[in-house]
Amino acid sequence: MGQPAEKQHRPATYADLDAVPEHLVAELLHGVLYTFPRPATPHTNAASYLAADLITPFGRGRGGPGGWHIYVDPRLHLGPHVLVPDLAGWRRERVPQMPRAPAITIAPDWLCEVLSPSTAAHDRIRKMPMYAAANVPWLWLVDPLLRTLEVFHLNASGWYEQQQAFADDEVVRAQPFADIALELAGWWEGVAPEGDAAPGT
Questions:
Q1: Which of 16, 35, 46, 85 allows an S-S link to 24, with CB 3.0 to 4.6 Å?
Q2: From CA 149, how far away is CA 161, in angstroms rounded?
Q3: Ordered structural domains, the chain, with CATH
Q4: Which residues form the Putative restriction endonuclease domain (predicted)?
């Protein structure tokens, strides 16, 4: 995947985006509509546990410093582009209250994309420049198959530099959430190794 939804003879619109079936994830970049299948269990597993690790201490302020709004799969309208990252966070000191709306037009302070074979190139090649153009300062790329976390920070020239890289079962303090130690092993557990069949198949 990662290709335009169909051969287009005109720029795609919000109406085209809203017409995409529920079983697909849809994004709109530079007037081109992209659709992807819903992610498989390694992606969902990593995104779910990562969200739990961050929302409790940072979003809810329980056992941690608080100070963030953290959303799962938000629909972002960044200029003419519509993107759906796996997670996004806004510092409460900058955005005390989130708007009540189906889409968010305020650029986040942090984003996380959990990579899958169908989305990795799209996330790196197409979406990273969109996030940089929107001045999102922190970006995480998590690969549940390679078991890696890459932490990028926007530099003065407006592009991302890798600040940290972690792998496997490390216990890490990753910016901008370095106040809490995160156990990467929890993000990968509970999913059969690649090539193993599910029970009963």
A1: 35
A2: 14
A3: 39-188 (3.90.1570.10)
A4: 14-182
